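In response to the reviewer comment on reproducibility (Comment 2.3), we provide here a single inverse folding case reported in full, input and output, so that an independent group could reproduce the run without further information from us. The structure tokens appear first.
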């Protein structure tokens, strides 16, 4: 996981939806515009109250809250991601694989803590492969440490520690995560290859080493491709 606080810069108003060209230019206004664009789909007139924040908490809870049918919806704090309207607003080109270096429950607690400025879209539990969705895929989770890659990816956190693969990288974890990644790739048209399913360590500029050298990429990609 990784912080993205620097991308989160509230600003008073952006009355119009930004054009794609404006979004691609980047800059400090980008996140704010993205946040308002996302919020404006759900509410009108109140978006400026909390620019840049997700509005997911205002929506009804239930099975429709998840993008992946097998996931349990355990929402992150709306302070820890950028509301958006993907893939219209940004293409979704990558799945980024992470390892938490935290326990599953502690990871969820971190994502629910509005002071942490970090999130992913999914968290997979080691012991049984249980999948939690914490941020909707249309929104930009803060996991890659790279704004461009955050906007263009779905992030999956895996419970465990990179130097204890035998203990944490279980069959259940690989199997459940591969099914999830296959579903994400299918829904977004992401090619099932290592150019598009990448480790956090492979994000340009990444200073994180997860999922680490013991993550079995050959096994994982075979499992994803089998779906
Ligand atoms: Zn990571």
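Designed residues, in position order:
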């Amino acid at each position: 996981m990784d912080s993205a606080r620097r991308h989160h810069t509230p600003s008073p108003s952006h009355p119009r939806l930004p054009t794609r060209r404006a979004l691609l230019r980047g800059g400090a206004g980008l996140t704010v515009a993205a946040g308002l664009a996302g919020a404006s789909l759900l509410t009108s007139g109140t978006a400026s109250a909390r620019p840049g924040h997700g509005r997911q908490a205002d929506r009804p809870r239930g099975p429709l809250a998840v993008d992946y049918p097998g996931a349990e919806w355990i929402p992150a704090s709306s302070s820890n991601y950028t509301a958006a309207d993907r893939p219209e607003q940004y293409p979704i080109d990558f799945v980024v694989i992470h390892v938490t270096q935290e326990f599953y429950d502690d990871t969820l607690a971190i994502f629910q803590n509005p002071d942490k400025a970090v999130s992913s879209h999914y968290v997979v539990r080691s012991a049984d492969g249980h999948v939690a969705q914490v941020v909707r895929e249309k929104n930009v989770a803060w996991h890659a440490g790279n704004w461009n890659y955050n906007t263009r990816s779905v992030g999956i956190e895996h419970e465990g520690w990179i130097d204890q693969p035998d203990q944490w990288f279980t069959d259940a974890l690989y199997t459940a995560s591969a099914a999830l990644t296959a579903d994400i790739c299918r829904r977004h048209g992401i090619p099932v290859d290592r150019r598009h399913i990448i480790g956090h360590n492979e994000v340009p500029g990444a200073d994180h080493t997860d999922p680490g050298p013991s993550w079995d990429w050959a096994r994982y990609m075979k499992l994803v491709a089998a779906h």
